[in-house]
Every structure is written in structure tokens, then in C-alpha cells.
Amino acid sequence: MKNKLIQGTIFVIFLSLIINPTLITSEIINALKVFFTTLFPSIFPFFLISDLLISYNFCNTLNKYFSKINNFLFHTSNASNFVIIMSIFSGFPSGAKYIKTLLDKHMLNLNQANYLITFTHFANPLFVLSITKSLFHNRTIGYLILLSHILANILLAIIIRPKEKEKIQKLEWNKISSFSTNLSSSIKSSLNLLALILGNTCFFYIITKLISTYFNMDIIPSIFINGFFDMTKGLNSIGLLNTTHLFKAILVLTFISFGGINIHMQVLDIISNTKIRYKNFLLGRISQLAISSFLFYLFYQISL
Q1: How far apart are the C-alpha atoms of 283 and 293, rounded to whole Å?
Q2: 62-65: which pairs have CB atoms within 8 A and are 24 or more residues apart?
Q3: Helix, strand, coil percent content, the chain, rounded in steps of 5
């Protein structure tokens, strides 16, 4: 049944390419515009720098200063400091990327990886603030959305943390290669992941366009379909709504907390050759969605 559904979807796209090629090409152009004007500038620098930091054993430096705080809040130690801190600033799917990289380097064990994948889903702060600025023209709402999003994950991490604290241990230093070698490796690694993001973005832009075209949906169902498949397209379409700031903000939190099928596919690809459980990631997104919406509602009532 699953294979037939996938075959049917791909065949519909193939027919659309023949019957109405401009419909598909226009959506690919839209996806490319979003990628190169919004996603690439905000994501690539973080991916590149964070990969270089891993190469130069920055995990040990963070472990030195944050291990006690991390151990107290999350009952973990070692390289989990790096994953938590850097994923907050880098944006998804960087959390999955760092977990996979450090698991491969034996700087994280599988239990730590399965715990971290649940709550290290953070939207890039620059991306969130730029999107919310255009939607609300109100900096306070943007900061409240970002705060609710981050705090929801931290609360989730504390709720589901391991019962026993791990022992704080010093990480073994990796052999450091030359800067040119590390830079080249980091660029290739970052671009490979960005190519995956671009490909997924184009594909799901096409899917959402075909659904909205063939089913002739109203604005609200169309926005939910956009956000379900592709977070960025869903967020950009929220501006079409003529409703309250509170409802729009909850929609923003819903889309960035869940991430969209696009992000889920990227995470699945990153962890595909590991024993990291996708189920943990999925349950984390549903939990984060509920917690962040509740937190924002409280903050909104108090401050605005």
C-alpha cells in the first residue's frame, strides 16, 4: 500500500511535468529563491563553522565550561554540550547532523544520541526573527516566539532526562589535520547537507502546489498543507491570513516545532545508517509543539 501511494504520487508529478510543465518549473524557481535568499545565507555559515569547531576539538572546550550545568539540567556530559548549544544557534537539521557526526567519532554513545535527537530541534534564530518581523512588524512577538520555541525543548529535555547522571569525563582529543584539509572537509560536508535540503525543498514545493491546484482548497487548509509538507512555505503563506497575531503566532510555532515533512525526511536521511530512533524525533516534535504553544500563550497574555 505504501509503495503504491509513493508510485502514484511520483506518477502524478511526472504527468504534471508533461501536461503543465510551467506549473512545476515555477514552483522550482520559487523554491530556489527561498533557498538562496533565506535558507542558504542563514544556514551555511553555521554548518561550516560548527564543523570546523568539531575538527578542532571545540567539544572539549565547551565540556570544560558547561559540563556541570549540562550534567545538572540534562544528566548528560561529554559532547552533548556541543550538540545542545550549537543546535540552538545553527537551526535544524543541525542537531541531527551533530549527533550523527559525534556518534561516528565515538564521542557520544547510542543512548545519548537517542536522548539528544528528541529535543535538539531548534529553528535558526536569525530565520525565526526575520520571518516574524515580516509577519507581525513587531519585534516583541518575534522574541516571544523564539523564547517559547527554545524553552519548550529545554523543558522537554528536563522532563525526559535520564534518571541517573552520567559521570563527567574528559573527551579524548582527535588528531587535528591542517586547516586547509579541515576547511575543505567542512565545506564538502556542509554543501552535501545543503544539497539535501535544497532537493527536499524543491520536491515538497511541487507536492504542495499540486495539492492546492488539483483540490482547489481555501486559504486556511492550503496554509496547513503547506506547513505540514514544507515549514518555510507554510510560514511564508501565513501572511495571507487576516486574523489575530495570537493565532498567527501559534501557527508559526506549530510549523517550526513540527518542522514539516521536509525536515523529517532530512533527519531520516542523516540518521539512516545509524541506530538512532526516528520515533524519538517524531514524539519530540509533537511534544515541543504542545509545550511551545502553551508557553507562548502565557507570555502573550502577560506581556502584550
Answers
A1: 16
A2: 63/168, 63/170, 63/171
A3: 80, 0, 20
Determine the Cα–Cα distance for residues 156 and 288; give it in Å rounded to an integer. 7
Nearest-CA neighbor of 233 among 195, 263, 196, 265?
A: 263
Q: Are 246 and 148 in contact (CB under 8 A)?
A: no
Distance separating the N- and C-terminal Cα atoms of the chain: 49
User: Are the beta carbons of 157 and 131 closer than 8 angstroms?
Assistant: no
d(CA 143, CA 252): 12
**Residue whose entry in the numeric block shows the C-alpha cell 526516528:** 278
For residue 111, give the C-alpha cell: 543512548
Using alpha carbons, select from 63, 50, 58 the residue that is nearest to residue 89.
50
The alpha carbon of residue 181 and the mean position of all alpha carbons in its chain are separated, in whole angstroms, by 28
CA 211, CA 70: separation in Å to the nearest integer? 45
Residue located via cell numbers 516534535: 285
What is the reported pTM?
Answer: 0.84
Q: How far apart are CA 119 and CA 188, in angstroms?
A: 27
Mean pLDDT per 10-residue segment, the chain (304 residues): 71 77 85 86 83 77 76 80 85 87 85 93 88 86 94 95 72 67 85 87 86 80 89 88 89 93 92 92 95 94 80
What are residue 170's phi and psi, to 5 degrees?
Answer: -80, 135
Residues 6+ apart with CB under 8 A from 231: 255, 256, 258, 259, 260, 262, 263
* Alpha-carbon dihedral 199, 202, 206, 207, rounded to 10 degrees: 50
Q: Return the C-alpha cell found at 112.
A: 545519548
Q: Is 132 helix (H, G, I), strand (E, B) or coil?
A: helix
Q: Which residues, at least 6 apart from 175, have a Cβ–Cβ distance to it below 8 Å?
A: none
The residue among 105, 77, 78 whose CA lies nearest residue 274 is 105
